[in-house]
DNA sequence: CATGCGTCCTGTGGGC
DNA sequence: TGCCCACAGGACGCAT
């Protein structure tokens, strides 16, 4: 589901509620929610109880809650990692609140200022999951991600590239990677080891804005086109974030269960047959890589010839 | 090594 | 009305 803007909305909502809070207990209702965790539900609950949450962090579509080390004075060494998958939600609830539909895990917290509250992980399709994972140093020694100034990331997030809104994202490295890719640019945008946070909606929206055909081989893009694309990716992600993310239904909501407004701003995604806002010709939908791509065949043309070398 | 496909789930909406 | 298929915002493992 959720792509960077939706996940960032969740992170920003969690941060003030969980930072500094003590874990009173955890309840795993469905162990399928722990597919990223090495132990079982009871082990997860026991290992989390009594710990203090230091922050709410994010890189791309991954979230994590760094935990205070048992012996203080040192850097954090582990965290609760979460991925929302296609349908995951993180909801803030009052203590003892009734069980949510599709509730998988509940974490009960005591915050020094806000008092007791619960973080509920609900997930219809169970593609999302939580885990307790070790923090390891970042390869570039920069901060781990949004909301986490220490130079560490959960081990299972280490292979995820920085996202385009991360100050440590390297535009030059991104451009050089594209030069080596024969794959369609859309596929590369969805490859979280190249650039993280972009999913099917924002890939289509960014390519529409940059006037690039989704099946253009990545290496066929000029340096100028790559710069334009990166600028549009950032613009789309920031605008969506400012509007609270994209919600087509009640599935994609913030920690208080509220929907975002960006669906009204979509130019290509989900607008099959509707007029392109730029040229008026119909948006088409094609299927490749087992996913839908929406674009304007008039505004987004394939390059006539591919550069032999750049 | 890089690339592309199938698979893990539940639910909804449209067509017949 | 009811049934069945297609499709849904993701990521990973495995085959080629």
Fill in the CATH topology of the largest domain.
N-terminal domain of MutM-like DNA repair proteins
Q: Total helix count?
A: 6
Query: Portion of residues in helices?
Result: 10-25%
Mean of the pLDDT scores? 95
Distance between the termini: 36 Å
Provide the β-strand percentage band.
15-25%
Describe this structure in words.
The active site is at 2 (schiff-base intermediate with dna), 3 (proton donor), 61 (proton donor), 291 (proton donor). Residues 267-301 form the FPG-type domain. Monomer. Pfam families: Fapy_DNA_glyco, H2TH, zf-FPG_IleRS. The chain has 310 residues and is of the alpha+beta class. It is built from six helices and eleven strands. A hairpin with a 2-residue loop joins strand 10 (284-288) and strand 11 (291-295). The radius of gyration is 20 Å and the shape is globular. The protein starts with a helix and ends in a 15-residue tail after the last strand. The protein binds a DNA duplex (16 and 16 nucleotides) through residues 1-3, 6, 32, 35, 61, 83-87, 102, 123-128, 180-183, 187, 190, 192, 199-202, 245-246, 248-249, 251-252, 269, 289-292.
Brief sketch in words of this structure:
About 20% of the residues lie in helices and about 20% in strands.
What keyword list fits this structure?
single chain; 310 residues; alpha+beta; N-terminal domain of MutM-like DNA repair proteins; Helicase, Ruva Protein, domain 3; 2 domains; 5-stranded antiparallel beta sheet; 4-stranded antiparallel beta sheet; 6 helices; globular; DNA-binding; Formamidopyrimidine-DNA glycosylase; FPG_N; DNA repair; multifunctional enzyme
